[in-house]
């Protein structure tokens, strides 16, 4: 693993990596869907998502149909991080 990949990988926790892996499976998610998938409260899911957003690994945008809800999507940086980890695990 090169230094850049090691640095990026070390900045996220195992739980954050798990969330990113789930999020990468679809175009967008709601906070409630993420919470249900992880078996945690919406508040706990929001905290994990806020940390990922600060790191530039996800974006949250208001849902066009229901402005109370946010659509969660992974960024290119997150996809690159997951791809790099997958490549390192399967040489």
From TrEMBL:
GO terms for biological process: response to stress. One of its GO terms (molecular function) is DNA-binding transcription factor activity. Keywords: DNA-binding, Transcription, Transcription regulation. SMART domains: HTH_DEOR, HTH_MARR. Residues 1-91 form the HTH marR-type domain. PROSITE patterns: HTH_MARR_1 (PS01117), HTH_MARR_2 (PS50995). The lineage of its organism: Bacteria, Bacillati, Chloroflexota, Ktedonobacteria, Thermogemmatisporales. This is HTH marR-type domain-containing protein. It comes from the Bacteria. Transmembrane segments: none annotated.
């Amino acid at each position: 693993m090169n230094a850049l990949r090691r640095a990026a990988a070390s900045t996220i926790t195992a739980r954050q990596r798990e969330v990113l892996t789930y999020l990468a499976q679809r175009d967008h998610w709601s906070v409630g869907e993420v919470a249900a998938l992880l078996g945690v409260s919406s508040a706990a899911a929001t905290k994990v998502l806020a940390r990922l957003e600060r790191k530039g690994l996800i974006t949250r945008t208001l849902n066009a149909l229901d402005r109370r809800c946010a659509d969660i999507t992974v960024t290119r940086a997150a996809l690159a991080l997951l791809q790099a980890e997958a490549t390192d695990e399967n040489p």
